Structure formats: C-alpha cells, structure tokens
Automatic annotation (TrEMBL):
Biological process terms in GO annotation: calcium-mediated signaling; immune response; neutrophil chemotaxis; positive regulation of cytosolic calcium ion concentration
Source organism (scientific name): Anolis carolinensis
InterPro entries: CCR1-9-like, Chemokine_CXCR_1/2, GPCR_Rhodpsn, GPCR_Rhodpsn_7TM
Cellular component aspect of the GO annotation: external side of plasma membrane
Assembly and oligomerization: Interacts with IL8. Interacts with GNAI2.
Encoding gene (name): LOC100554601
Domain of life: Eukaryota
CDD domains reported in the protein's UniProt record: 7tmA_CXCR1_2
Protein name (database record): C-X-C chemokine receptor type 2
Length: 359
C-alpha cells in the first residue's frame, strides 16, 4: 500500500468512501460550521456491493453472448454490428472492474494508487465510448434511411478507423482520472479512498473544468447528434412501409433510451453538483447531502447499464435470438427442428451477408 497519501489541511474536498462521485465538506472558514458527510449503514454498503457483483455476472454472460453472435458471422459485418460489438467489448471490460468497486463500497480502497487510476479511467472510457458509439450508430442509420446511401453504408472500411478513434478519444477524455486520481486517507477516519488530488487553492475551479470539458464533448455533443439524427430518421420511417427497417430501428431506439435512462440522471446530478461548487446555487449541508445521495444512487443505475444491452437484444431483437439458436444448432446443443419451429413466421434470413446479425 505504498502509494497512499495522508490528508492534510490543503485538501478541502475529499472523495467520500461510499461515493465514487466528487464529494466535499464545506470550508469551515466560509461557512457557519463544517458539514459532516453522512455514512451509509453496513447493510446498505453490502447491498450495493451485492448489486455490483450481480451486474458483473449478468454483464459478463450477456456481453460474451453478444460478442459470440456477432463474431460468429465470418462474412462482411454490417457497420451497426461493428459498433454494437465494440459496445459489448466496452461493457465486458468494465464488468471486470465491478468486483473492485464492490469491495470499495463494502470496505475501503485497498488496491493502491495505480489501480485507483486505472479502474477510474476504465469507468470513464466505458461511459464515453458507449455514448460515442451510439452517436455514430445514429449517424449510420440517418444516412442509410434518410438519404438511402446504401452503397456508402455497406462499404465502409473506414468504420474500423472510426471505432479506433472513439476508443482513443474516450481515453483522452479520461486523462483527468489517470492524472489526478490517488489514494488518500479520509478526514477524521482511517478509511482510504480513491480521490482526485489536484492540490492548491484552485482545486475547485480546476475540478469544475475537468468535469465540464468531458461532459460537453463526451456527453452533451453526442447526445445532441443522437437527438437530431434519430428525430429525422424516425420521422422518415413513419413515411415508409418498410417494416423490417422499422423493427431494426425499434431495437436501436430502445438501446439509446436505456442508455439515457441509466446515465442521464447521473450526469444531471453531476451538473447540479458542479453548479453548487461554482456557487451558482447556494451550497448548504442539506443540499450537499441530497446531491451525495443522488450521485451514489444514480451511479449504481449507470453501472447497471453494462448488462442492459444483451437483455434488450434477447427480448426485442428477433435476429439476435435466431442467430444465437443457429449457433446452438451448429454446436449440436439443440436440434434443427427446434430452430425451425421457433423461426416459423419470422422474417429472418441467413442468406444476406449485409443483414445485421444483432438487430
């Protein structure tokens, strides 16, 4: 545990050991009295840890199946499948970190500064790569449906370069975590926490900057792109009679809506916390406690997103289910009769190399 810092008077904001988000106590020099962060009970801590482990299990199994189904098709994969494959890989990588977060929630940070930086950065990379991949899926569907650029949407060798660019950009947006995350002792406690140690009198200002920039380019801009592309695309679909495209679009829209449902509350809570840090809204102990609770709860919701997409594909994506059953038939796990009986009445076709295997 060599890379552990001790808390001193120059650090006025500390990361609450029960909250991965940015927590603080009021400065005694500028407030009538210091706010004491409320610690959750042992029951809540262990329950949160249990939820993380449960999400980890479902995420590993579900996303591994998505990777299997998409990669099983050796032909020229549709661009949407390439994006969804990268999305599943991002969730798989993040799922591997959840047991570490579970231990942190239940106990304290025991993994040292290097792991603190790496695990925090992996969480950020997962979030940013997820929304950027969904944004590019929205652009792909917009071009394919609104402008009917079939020749462009099916001969896109550049998609691999786009995915690499998304991963690199997500890593760049996560650099603040790699640079400033360290392990420190919480004030008035023997607990060790994983926390951004920026230092100096400008700590709050720089922390706000390090929040606003990634939130703007890694969340708000991709969100605006998705809203525009899907708004126009859905409008065009209502004017068409292509039920197959409508079904595929339904799955994509559900994927996007679930992503927003899981991550938008956390980002709204983080925005309110940022406004409080910059004194745009008054900072009080009551508001601080409410924001701390909101950040903890919404982060749990955000973490749960890593296991959501496979569930969506399984329950809504007819082609995903059919292709998974086809793999089971090939491996001799189920009979062809089962597959034929299940697929009766389905519009699924295995002859098109350009048909998505997921949607």
């Amino acid at each position: 545990m060599g890379d552990v810092l001790t808390f001193d008077g120059d650090i006025t904001e500390l990361f609450d050991y029960l909250n991965y988000s940015y927590e603080s106590t009021l400065n005694p020099d500028s407030a009538p009295g210091p706010c004491r962060p409320k610690s959750a009970s042992a029951l809540i801590r262990y329950f949160v840890a249990f939820l993380y482990c449960l999400v980890c299990l479902f995420s590993l199994v579900g996303n591994a199946l998505v990777v299997l189904v998409v990669t099983y098709n050796k032909g020229n994969r549709p661009v949407t499948d390439v994006y969804l494959l990268n999305l599943a890989i991002a969730d798989l990588i993040f799922a591997l970190t959840l047991p570490i977060w579970a231990i942190f929630r239940a106990h304290e940070w025991i993994f040292g500064t290097a792991m603190c930086k790496i695990i925090s950065a992996m969480k950020e990379v997962n979030f940013y790569s997820g929304i950027l991949l969904l944004a590019f899926i929205s652009i792909d569907r917009y071009l394919a449906i609104v402008y009917a650029t079939h020749h462009v949407t099916e001969k896109r060798h550049w998609v691999k370069f786009v995915c690499v660019g998304i991963w690199v950009f997500s890593l760049l947006l996560s650099l603040p975590m790699i640079t400033y995350r360290e392990v420190v002792h919480a004030p008035n406690s023997a607990q060790m926490v994983c926390y951004e140690n920026i230092g100096g009198n400008e700590t709050t200002k720089w922390r706000v900057v390090l929040r606003i920039l990634p939130q703007t380019f890694g969340f708000l801009v991709p969100l605006a792109v998705m809203l525009f592309c899907y708004g126009v695309t859905v409008h065009r679909l209502f004017q068409m009679k292509n039920n197959q495209k409508k079904k595929a679009m339904k799955v994509i829209l559900v994927v996007v809506l679930v992503f927003l449902f899981c991550w938008l509350p956390y980002n709204i809570s983080l925005l309110i916390d940022t406004l409080m840090r910059t004194r745009v809204i008054a900072e009080t102990c009551g508001l601080q406690d409410a924001i701390d609770a909101a950040l903890l709860g919404t982060e749990i919701l955000g973490f749960s997103h890593s296991c959501m997409n496979p569930i969506i594909y399984a329950f809504i994506g007819q082609k995903f289910r059919n292709n998974f059953l086809k793999i089971l038939v090939t491996r001799g796990i189920i009979s062809k009769e089962v597959l034929i009986r299940y697929r009766k009445g389905s519009t699924f076709s295995s002859t098109s190399g350009n048909t998505s295997t997921t949607l």
